[in-house]
């Protein structure tokens, strides 16, 4: 490969930077975004919901939740302890 061709290839692969006129002092307001889609509850929120059902006496619904969590592979002592208590009773 000739020196001219190497220089051409190097010139083509160089990163080109273009300045963008932008004054950071112009922006002094806070931006917030919102979406209309509800966020997925965390595992902790789901477990707390099942515990709340259990405490309120809705044993069948709480048991369904605990079994679901176990099936999904949740590894939380509260699930196992509470579900064991329901099964024992």
Can you give a write-up of this model?
There is one protein chain. By secondary structure, the protein is mostly helical. 55% of the residues lie in helices and 0% in strands. The protein contains 4 helices and no strands. α3 crosses α4. The longest helix has 13 residues. It is elongated. The termini are far apart. The mean pLDDT is 81.
Offer a few descriptive terms.
89 residues, mainly alpha, 4 helices, 0% strand, elongated
**How many helical elements?**
4
Structural class: mainly alpha
Sheet with most strands: none
Sequence of secondary-structure elements: HHHH
| Count of extended strands | 0
Radius of gyration: 30 Å
Q: Calculate the mean pLDDT score and round it.
A: 81
> What is the 3D form?
elongated
Query: Which consecutive residue ranges, at least 5 long each, have pLDDT under 50?
Result: none
């Amino acid at each position: 490969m000739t020196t001219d061709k190497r220089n051409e290839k190097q010139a083509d692969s160089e990163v080109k930077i273009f300045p963008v006129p932008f004054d950071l002092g112009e922006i002094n307001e806070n931006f917030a975004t919102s979406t209309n889609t509800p966020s997925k509850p965390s595992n902790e929120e789901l477990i707390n919901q099942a515990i709340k059902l259990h405490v309120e006496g809705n044993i069948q619904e709480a048991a369904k939740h605990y079994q679901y969590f176990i099936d999904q592979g949740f590894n939380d002592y509260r699930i196992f302890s509470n579900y064991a208590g329901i099964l024992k009773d």
